[in-house]
Amino acid sequence: MRSIIWISRLSVFRWLAALLCAALLWPAAQAQAQEAKTLRIGFQKYGTLTIVRALGDLDKRLAAQGITVKWTEFPAGPQLLEGLNVGSIDFGTVGEAPPVFAQAAGAALVYVGNEPPSPTSEAILVPKDSPIKSVADLKGKKVALNKGSNVHYLLVKQLERAGVPYADVNVAYLTPADARAAFERGSVDAWVIWDPFQAAAEKQLGARVLADGAGVVKNYQFFLAARPYEKAHPDVIQIVLEEIRKGDLWARDHRAEAVALLQPVLGLDKAVVELAAERLAYGVQPITREVLQEQQQVADAFHALKLIPKPLNVFDAAPSGLK
């Protein structure tokens, strides 16, 4: 009799334990289900994601699977990846340097794709009447840039090539909008910037290209995902990459239509958008070891300058198959 009672009590205890476990796991299950219903994409006001957003095909394709796309605009790559780091977005695109700074800050990100090199889509600009004629002339001058952006690495490598120590340049960390205002006022001697801001400064201000990335940096555009989201929803990430590839190829083959599509989004003159579009590289590619090895060089350069606090292994953010 006692054995029967003991077994009954044991069954009750097990039932209560299972009930308690289910109660504890229910919020997490709800959160995961909610996460699967929304894809939060961070974008900047230019590039392939802007085209994909304007075309609307990705939103429609995911909507058919019950997934809503939420688009959030960021002024630059570092701010976008900060959003990814704090969990406000799941996916985005940035240049070479932002993933390095984000990974150094502990962001759980993963490289999922990249566009071909686009070295002329970023440059060091000076006013049209500036006495500065070479990168070496930047010694002792004030140079504006967005800290941690792709152009940060461009300045590092151009100074290295010219034999000018990075510490010998007065670097002012400004967002693109603030940097343009400072450049127009003449309160900085040079501005390191990317398209379409670069094209706008050339066309609207007559800014002169002192040096771009040709022969010095690759200027890849990377597509990155929050690792928890990529791990939980690799099928969604694959759909996103497929639609980005379609949008990329459409823009390559329909340049005039792409410019017309981007113009109202950017709020820029047609000539500005056309110049920027000419310098774009088209065609999304899967991440390779060779590309990540080049990213490792970016990380090593920033660590050598003490711009990131400790050595970084870029391959910690590699897709599972490349680790």
UniProtKB/TrEMBL annotation:
SMART domains recorded: PBPb (SM00062)
GO molecular function, one term: ATPase-coupled transmembrane transporter activity
Keyword list, A-Z: Signal, Transport
Localization per Swiss-Prot or TrEMBL: Periplasm
Keyword Transferase listed: no
PANTHER family (alphabetical): ALIPHATIC SULFONATES-BINDING PROTEIN-RELATED
Similarity field: Belongs to the bacterial solute-binding protein SsuA/TauA family.
The protein, known as: Putative aliphatic sulfonates-binding protein
Gene that specifies this protein: ssuA_2
